[in-house]
Design goal:
Layout (H helix, E strand, L loop, with lengths): L9 H4 L11 H21 L7 H23 L9 E2 L14 E7 L6 E6 L5 E8 L9 E5 L10 E7 L7 E3 L4 E9 L10 E6 L11 H29 L6 E4 L10 E9 L4 E7 L6 E7 L14 E3 L11 E6 L8 E3 L5 E9 L8 E6 L4
Amino acid sequence: MTARRTEPSPAEAGSHAPNGSRPLESVAAWRELLDTLAETGEVVTSLADGVPAADVAEGFGHILNVLADQFERAALRRSRHPVFLPGVTPVRKFFFDNPDTDYDIAVLGRSPRYRIHGNRGTCTYLSFCVYSALGRDATTRLVNLSDRDMHFSPDGDFEVILSPEEVPGNWLRIDTGSRAVIVRQYFLDRRTEVPAEYRIEALDDPPPDPPLDDLGFARAVRTAAMFVQAATSLAVQRVETLRATPNRFVQIGEHGPYRTPDNDYLACWYRLGEDEALLIDVEPPECRYWGVHLANRWGQSLDHRTRRTALNGRTATPEADGKVRVVVSGTDPGSPNWLDTSGHPEGWVLFRWLLADEPVVPNVERIKLTSR
């Protein structure tokens, strides 16, 4: 933890509004952000002597990814005109993003009622989750509506109402503590499945949004800075919890602040030598979707654009008895279900069972590649 900056306050420094009436909150918030980034960066820097250099570089990248995402969302909190924006991309990642999932997030601002409407498409799974603000324990409360409980027209069109009072049809309860709605689309084969399409609108015919002003910027920056600190601390805490018992799976119920109740999550902190591999044997349960993927120390999925770092119930090759053997290693052992650690001797292996009859814990064995 670094010491706070010793620059004078905005008032002391003469950082006043043009009419000189008061100090600028945006200047103070900007300086606080720099302090927060320095302190959070020290969390990453403190690992430099004990982890691969790539983990440190990815840690700094994680901070910037979270900052960019959260400032954008915090600034939209003042809007009465919500819009769905991608939560992660193939390069901007956090919170154990799943390569098979599209996450679209709309910030809920000052309107009391909203309408989401669109078309179901043919994606494997579609759900809408409303989340509260992040609590002091780094968790949120949520309400969830998935396609399993929704009504659609014969052509797949749908409407979801978000309001404090229940209404007939597809409905999600919101209140003054509701902060965002996240739409998840799961895919088993992106080449053949048609993504759902949807948009959100306020139902109270709101006026145009106010421009970003001094107080609005300050509020957004402070909110984003707080989230950066919380996200980085959570990532470090997760590693410390499981790295003492590597190469074994445990069921994790919460899965961070933005979980979905339809998933069962299992996590393993893998640790491998240069000539070692992890053999993972599992008989997947009956479920809508299952997938396994690798992630770095900070919970960011490994490169799935140019490497095979993820498999699912469609892309994995099962044995004759229905069981699946996944091989995690840095070099290709010739297995059809190889996951490439992409230069990461340590990291995460994560399974998701979506709408499963019962979660299954995979068996794990660490082996020497030369012995097989």
